[in-house]
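Chain A, query sequence.
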Amino acid sequence: MFKPSEKLNLMLAEMGNVIVASGIQITRIKDDAEDKWQALWRAGVSEFVACLIFIFIGCGSVIASKSTLGDDKVLPPGLILIACAHGFAIMCLIYAIGEISGGE
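Chain A, predicted structure.
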């Protein structure tokens, strides 16, 4: 049988609060729906940030190939530079956020 104070603590714990009374700590009960939304937001934000970084590196590689090679046309060395930059960028981003977003 519960004492009245223990019953109150259990009722408050079911509402999601952390209660510390007389040396007993009752932690918050996790909600599955809240965890799903949190995981969804975490995945979405990480994919958004990775996409921004990928576009920045990709556009930067095109600008860098134009400025270093100095031609108006994109020649094969410039194409190789651009392709390698995109490849390394996507590889690094997959390793960085693959576990967070579950992508790739």
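The mean pLDDT is 77. The chain has two domains: 1-30, 31-101.
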